[in-house]
Amino acid sequence: MRSTIRLRYVLLAAVAALVFGVALYQLIGGGRQAPPKITVAVKAMDEIEFWRVLIDGVHTASREFNVEVSVIGPPKEVDVDRQIELIEAAIPEKPDAIVMAAGDYHRLVPVAEKIHQAGIPLVMIDSAVQGSYAETLIATDNFGAGQKAGKELAALLPGNAQVAIVSFVQGASTQIEREQGVRSILEGRAGTEIVGTYFSEGMEERAYEITMKLLQERPDLDGIVGLNEPSTVGAGRAIRELGLTGQVKLVGFDSSIKEVKLLEEGVIQSIIVQKPFNIGYLGVKTALSVLEGDKVPDKVYTDSVVIHKSNMYTEENQKLLFPFVEE
User: Fold this and answer.
1) pLDDT tens digit string along 24-66?
2) Which ranges does the record mark as transmembrane (predicted)?
3) Superfamily the domain 142-273 falls into
4) What is the pTM of this model?
5) In what order do the strands lie in the sheet with 136-140?
6) Which of the following CATH numbers is that of domain 37-140+275-302: 3.30.230.10, 3.40.50.2300, 1.20.140.160, 2.40.50.140?
């Protein structure tokens, strides 16, 4: 009987010691901490292949670094007001950091100010805002990518040429910088006239309608630069439908199944392909570095690659043209 009682006391003491030890371990910070919460605000959720691949990079980083991410954004890039509403609603939830691709260089400034005033670290991806509110910007070198597009088209044009730029959402920093890059090359080319920049609002059908009208009104047009995927595809559809394949040269941006088909058919002569997966992945990774107190560079530029029919089948370029996107 006494041995049973003694054993019971020993077991109780052991349990008490274990409970005390666990409590002390958690008290001194040895307990498991909750993962950081990061809100990622994109310009469009599912409209363009670029954003689907970028979001895939976000989720890959979240799993690798044990980060809880919430991805928010409007259905279409043109809906800047909706993006503003979503981000402003996320600020009071006090995420540990916000990663943001700004739908407009100027209109998102008040949002960036609110994030800064709330004491939430801000990392910009793809598209910046005016001012110094972010810890860093992770993006394609859009001016340099625009220059690549300008050089590609310039090499295809006759001595005297008329060209047009089909852009996407007016006011986005990516649009501004790419157009500046294109113009820096083409405006410096003797005998080349840029007849105008036309905005598709990031919609393929709108780009198609713009280009159809443009080609009918300007039968002497020699070339077009499309500054994103829908703008390029819409312009390509119009060129093909009017029987102008190879006659009107087309250089575009980004990659999609439709663009690859137009490239194979010779409607598109070349495309400038970005690396959106890397941008999304690095956005989350860099936000985590900021939270850990690490110093990060002001800007991180990801590469862009020129792809045309003669090099589209290389293994490296096939990976860029056909990225794996999780459903």
Assistant:
1) 444 444 444 799 999 999 999 977 899 999 999 999 999 999 9
2) 7-28
3) Response regulator (3.40.50.2300)
4) 0.85
5) 68-72, 37-41, 97-100, 122-125, 136-140, 299-302
6) 3.40.50.2300
